[in-house]
Amino acid sequence: MTVDFLYLSQEDVIQCGALDMAQTIKCVEDATVMLYQKNALEADAVHLLWNGISGKRMAVHAAYLGKGVDVAGGKIIASNPDNPLKRGIPRASAVLTLNDPETGYPISMMEGAVISHMRTGAMTGVGVKHLVGHGSPVIGLIGAGPISRTSLMALNEVLDEIGHVKIFDLVDRRAAAFEEELEKNLCLDIRAVKSAEEAVRGSDIVVPATTVGPGEAYIEYDWLKPGCVLSDASIWDEKDDVIAKADRVVINNVQRLHFRYDRFAPLIAENRISRDAIIHLGAVITGQAKGRERDDDIILFCPRGMCLYDVYNGFRIYQTARAKGLGQVLTLWKEPIWS
């Protein structure tokens, strides 16, 4: 019994729709509801850290999407925050596998970093779609890397109108390059600013996407505009007071509430926040809970990364690749050595 699988390079996954933000958002939204309705499973991620939580690391994720999709898969993603500045190469690389849920055999292996970046930005888009107020929001971005790029792509997709965008990065030239590229590609008014505080103050939507770690939080509660949504894309940017004082805290993965590398466990243990007060995004999407009660609610949205988003989007890309005849068929084995 020969077992083959389809290998897709980064060029292949892009040709098969990896950069289609509308489709990525749809997969993320649907998968969030599937998880909330217990029609999907997300394993606790395994993290290997060899020079601190915000340093060089590797993570292993796995997920299963049930009825209506029926696919399993896993992602290995390695990251070194020094790569862009020291080597001029991307921070992260990833490999995504898709598996037949019946046999467990692989059906595809593909480059996963583009998919991962896109679904991370899409998570902010889905959250803002259900949590932001009306009008033409001002957006404040911190960090001029791929996640801010895809977050802005997602926001441009879900919002009818955007006032203007502020971008701050510790490296001025990165902020300037971001401003020039995204202003042209998305036809938005984008302005590089001089500090994180300037990016946050007066913004209706705030998205920090940095590599800061524990003990390096810098966003103060009083920087936040009443009514704003802070999409906590990189976990450690806001100070504990922001979490404790926010009017609403919404999360897409309640498993992370007790994860040792997340923010919530110690705050829950110290009774600074109540586990029962935290809202699942799936409940908001399905109308089981309100994301926003008042126009001036300050909402903290915690879009935690989940492999089910990678798997769902990867499965979409795999199906397109098969229809187009793209990719390379590789053999796992021609005959198993043992059975």
Account of the protein in words:
- The protein is α/β, with parallel strands linked by helices and 339 residues long.
- 34% of the residues lie in helices and 24% in strands.
- The longest helix is centred in the middle third of the chain and has 19 residues, at 113-131.
- The chain is globular, with a radius of gyration of 20 Å.
In short:
With 339 residues, the chain is of the alpha/beta class.
Uncertain ranges? none
Number of strands: 16
- Number of helical segments with 4 or more residues: 11
Which class do the helix and strand fractions yield?
A: alpha/beta
The main β sheet shows up as: 8 strands, mixed
What's the Cα radius of gyration?
A: 20 Å
Order of helices and strands: EHHEEEEHEEHEHEHEHEEHEHEHEHE
How much is the average pLDDT? 94
State the helical fraction: 25-40%
End-to-end C-alpha gap: 11 Å
Outline: globular
Strand content: 15-25%
